[in-house]
Amino acid sequence: MATSPTPPSPTDTHADVVLIGGGIMSATLGSMLAVLEPRWRVVVLERAGALASESSDAWNNAGTGHSGFCELNYMPDPTNGSKASIIAAQFLASRQWWSYLAAQGLLDPTTFISTTAHMDVVFGEHDIAYLRERFDTLITDPLFGGMEFSDDPSVIARWAPLVMEGRPAAQRVAATRHPGGTDVDFGALTRGLTTVITSCGGEVRLGHDVRSLRRDASGSWVVRCRNRDGEFSVRSPQVFVGAGGHALRLLQRAHLPEVRGYAVLPVGAAFLRCSDPTVVSRHRSKVYGQAAVGAPPMSVPHLDRRVVDGTPHLMFGPYATFSTKLLTRGRWTDFFTTVRSHNMVVILAAMVQNVSLIRYLIGQLAARPRHRFRQLQRYYPRARRDQWTLVAAGQRAQLITPDRRRIGVIQQGTELIVSADGSMSGLLGASPGASTAVPIMVDLLRRCFPDRWRDRWAEAMSVAIPALTTARWSPELVRDVHATTGRSLGLVTHR
User: Fold this and answer.
1) What pLDDT was estimated at residue 2?
2) β-pairing verdict for 42-46 and 17-20
3) Which of 39, 61, 107, 486 measures 20 to 30 Å from 370, CA to CA?
4) Which residues are within 8 A (CB) of 379 and not within 5 positions of it... i.e. 6 or more apart?
């Protein structure tokens, strides 16, 4: 890797691992390292003045606890449930890690997770036929045991009364429901996980903006930062970049060849929010529907029950917004700083192949408040405008990757980038990253610390997360995992 050596500085400090970004990814990785190597010095660097202030913030994501129960975009082919099954297994691994920490007294689950049924609601014969076929596929998978299907309006009304009240009797509706879904406040979870880091001697430094990443003569990474007091450096043999929309830019600054040709597309979002207790108390589910043609994967419409700081709310959206910022608190120049000669063609090719996405975004930006509210009324016919407020929901950096055949492809989900020597890693992309942070970070441990993983860590992590070594899920095993993690996390399933 061609990098120029950086001489030592009197302001240098040393860390065993540096985590850039104070969101759910860094917090998850840091909590694992704190448990596995409690004597290591782990330093978290966050440019904002608070943790989890971007994508991990409770108001900047749906908090669905993505488990494949309700995300129709994971199954465009209703006969192929492979991706939904993978996501469901990954979320069980996440539940097991949180459960393990809670059982050790390291994490308070009452602050971040609650039981919330996951539903799909669709309209019209075409989508009803799709949903029934999807249900028939998933119900054969033990990970989806307990899922129900109905096209009976009275049953759906019991599951989600707001969805059915005021709906024309002639309109055909169908729904699936899984009572074992969850609502997760990933902001609160991030803050809880960082206390695991600091309890083992790690540090969380807020207001620290990373400016450059260079290798020194010894092979360590020199992470140069700026804060209100000036500039300083942290030297470490291991760096993880979990900086959300800024991750690609930082990896580019580190001159990682593994990100050559990679690009990001900024996509913003807004939600309608209702906090009126008379409305909120009557909706206890997360209701997902079919995305509009051309909509990005994260734009599936949903009417969600959210619990933030112990208070329930309803949210509907998302509505796409546009900005060249890559972070909510970023700059208008952010996107352009990631454009390089080697990814320009990749970006153009991806956009040409996604004309429907461009049309969708233009339509969303041109939509008037009346049009946005009609979208809500499709799922809640009796919604009143005076009870809902439009709120911004942060920025996402949709990943664009080079492709031999198509030149550039817009990717759904996330991708873990690891340097050839394993000393630097980073996460690119968006949803469902937060819900699958645990298996993603386990993969990072395997790839970046292969000797330690083989010698000690694999055994320790399999005790904490038995799902890591589960080759086949039986109905009995799934029920047992839900029961044991449910007890540790204080989850009660409402039928």
Assistant:
1) 36
2) parallel
3) 61
4) 121, 163, 287, 289, 301, 303, 316
Distance of CA 242 to the CA centre of its chain: 12
HEC profile of 212-273: EEEECCCCCEEEEEEECCEEEEEEECCEEECCHHHHHHHHHHCCCHHHCCCEEEEEEEEEEE
Query: Which residue's structure tokens are 């309700």?
Result: 70
Q: How far is residue 201 from each of residues 13, 35, 213, 428, measured CA to CA in Å?
A: 15, 12, 24, 28
pLDDT at 321: 86
Residues 6 or more apart whose Cβ sits within 8 Å of residue 5: 214, 215, 216, 217
Continuous segment of H or E residues that includes residue 164? helix 161-164
Q: Are 222 and 216 in contact (CB under 8 A)?
A: yes
Count the helix, strand and coil residues of the chain and give each as a percent rounded to the nearest 5. 40, 25, 35
pLDDT score of 170: 94
The per-residue pLDDT for 9 is 46
Report the pLDDT value the prediction gives residue 295, as an integer from 0 to 100.
63
Q: Which residues of the chain have pLDDT under 50?
A: 1-10
Distance CA 429, CA 20 (A): 16
CA dist list (Å): 43 to 17, 269, 488: 6, 31, 29
Tell me what pLDDT residue 298 has. Answer: 60
The answer to whether residues 302 and 286 touch, using CB atoms and an 8 Å cutoff, is yes
Q: How far is 459 from 465, CA to CA, in rounded Å?
A: 10
Q: Report CA 359 to chain centroid distance, whole Å.
A: 25
The rounded radius of gyration (Å) of the Cα atoms in the chain is 23
Tokens of 194: 């960082």
Residue 401 backbone phi and psi in degrees, to 5: -120, 150
Q: How far apart (Å, rounded) are the C-alpha atoms in residues 273 and 314?
A: 6
